Automatic annotation (TrEMBL):
It holds the Pfam family DUF3460. It comes from Sphaerotilus montanus. This is Acetyl-CoA carboxyl transferase. It comes from the Bacteria. InterPro entries: DUF3460.
Length: 66
């Protein structure tokens, strides 16, 4: 490694690190927000019923049936 090599941090990374320093609970709140929308248990029986209830789509959607 050369002597003049300096560890590079982008402006975005510096901004995020400064946000985390200003608000230490930021990352915890982000995780809680993610859990509200994405980290949910799936109901497999309801998903199976949903999959069987779908109607197959015709190859060209705007074609009228002859």
């Amino acid at each position: 490694m050369p002597l003049f090599w300096k560890h590079y941090k982008s402006e975005t990374t510096q901004f995020i690190e400064s946000l985390k320093q200003q608000d230490p609970k930021l990352e915890q709140r982000q995780r809680e927000g993610r859990a509200l929308l994405w980290d949910r248990e799936q109901n497999r029986s309801a998903q199976g019923e949903f999959n069987t209830a779908t109607v197959p789509q015709q190859p060209y959607v705007y074609q009228t049936k002859a």
